[in-house]
Amino acid sequence: MKRLLTFLLCFGILLFWSSCRNDFEFSPSTGNLEFARDTVYLDTVFTDIGSSTYNLKVYNRSDDDIVIPSIQLERGVNSFYRMNVDGTTGLQGTQEGKFFENVELLANDSLFIFIETTIDIESLSASDTQFLYTDRILFDSGNEQQDVDLVTLVKDAVFIYPNFQGTSTNFETLIFDADGDGNPDETNLPGRFLEPEELTFTNEKPYVIYGYAAVNEGETLTMEAGARVHFHADSGILVTNNASLNINGELSTDQVTLENEVILESDRLEPLFEDVPGQWGTIYLFNGSINNTVNYATIKNATIGILSEGNQDEPTDKLTITNSQIYNSSSFGILGRATSITAENVVINNSGQSSFAGTLGGKYNFTHCTIANYWNNSFRQFPALLINDFVLDENGNPITNDLVEANFNNCIVYGNDNPEFILDQQGNNFNYKFTNCLLRFENDNLEDLPNYDFSNTTFYEGNIFNLDPDFENPFENLMRIGEDSGANSIGNLMFANQVPIDILGIPRTVSPDAGAYESVVFQED
After folding, report:
1. pTM to 2 decimal places
2. Which of 198, 232, 182, 197 minimizes the C-alpha distance to 212?
């Protein structure tokens, strides 16, 4: 009983004290706010595309509850920025997100301001391809005024997107002969065919693609050296029957900016998204497309970097890819289906499934390539390299197709799982050979199978197994090899003479290294 009386007495005193306090008396701010930073940099955006949301934390370090008379954007209703203060959008109408009145802030407390922007570069400068847009957040006015700068780099771009059909969420879909019967089929892929004047991507402005940009029959899409191509979610490039894709990058002198390479990535430019897999779809070389070439390209953060389908028996390879890098694909780096691919000086790493998968047979020749996978192996079901000759029908029965050839010469096939290559055979014609490669394979359950008889020189010759490739930092896609690499000097000179310089333009020696890079001595930080 005594405890109850004590509790009631304390509660009554607290209630009386709070009622006498006039429900928290707020004093006007005195210009002593503190900020987590004095400038908020909203990372580069494309014109007319909304930014991510950025935040600014505002502190009241005093022992008094204060009220900030106003928080506003200096450019007012004309500002391209918009704000949200602790969950509120401020005054309504044209000033919404621009002007806030009498914002309360308790003693020794803080509030969050969230900032976004969507900027029309044409209203800033008709001639510039990029523009630095600035504004300020003003806290209070007169002698008590404080401010925080806002800075955004805006890039102009060429936008390619499908037309709307009726509503803003219903895009047109591609219509072409998808099944090879001579009649056009409506697909479920949103997109449109490129117009003739759109078939050359230059380095003058970036390209931003919504949906699938398709290359029509008999036409060629050319990407010139230094071109930058950005894809929105669920977007990509589709090359249809008798059409071609030619990516014509060149060796860059600056390996940070890659000024001459063609770079294909997502349209999210913030550093937070720099290495996020699966932000866009794929480069889809459809069954019937021909003479596709990729040279000095970086393809990153796709679902499938390149999907090549069909045409394994054509006299010219369906895809020739050289001096290129494919990183952070949420599914496959390169996926081939009954197709033909020649690859030289190609680096593939960090794929959710396989970095290279040659499936349903086909014809594949890889020389001086680095096929690696350092994806989190707790979530990965397939090795870095997967070769098979079948697909399962609806009843689970295999439908096979000849693996005409799968040759890997002077390559590295490695990763953070084991084994890192699987040869899954169901049919009778399954032809492959590994020559002078560094391979990762340790698996007692598979080593007794015929396809893993490493003493059989018909299929394996001059290979080295399970030695550390000494990659610079494979988790960051830095795939150069060091002086202690197990790939050093193991290459076959005949194949090295076919690809006499590495991906960085360094000449190969008479004792060539395996993989796309000649070894270097890493500089310590």
Report:
1. 0.86
2. 232
Q: Is 441 in contact with 418 (CB distance < 8 Å)? A: yes
**Amino acid residing at 505:** G
- DSSP notation for 395-463: TS-EEE--EEEEEEES-EEEESSS--EEEE--SS-B--EEES-EE----TTTTTSGGG-TT-TTTEES-
The position carrying tokens 């900016």 is 257
Task: Please state, in angstroms and rounded to a whole number, the distance separating the CA atoms of residues 214 and 176.
Answer: 10
Q: Which two tokens stand for residue 14?
A: 């607290």
CATH 3.40.50.150 correct for 27-155: no
**DSSP assignment, residue 94?**
G
For 298-322, how does the pLDDT look when each residue is reduced to its tens digit (9 = 90+)?
999 999 999 999 999 999 999 999 9
Closest CA to 75 of 37, 124, 112, 111: 124
Give the residue from 223, 235, 229, 231 showing the smallest Cα distance to 191: 235
The H helix count followed by the E strand count for the chain is 2, 43
139: Cβ contacts below 8 Å, ≥ 6 apart: 29, 33, 58, 68, 70, 71, 145, 146, 147, 148
Domain locations along the chain: 27-155, 158-498
For 199-256, what is each residue's pLDDT tens digit?
999 999 999 999 999 999 999 999 999 999 999 999 999 999 999 999 999 999 998 8
Question: What phi, psi does 53 have (nearest 5°)?
Answer: -95, 130
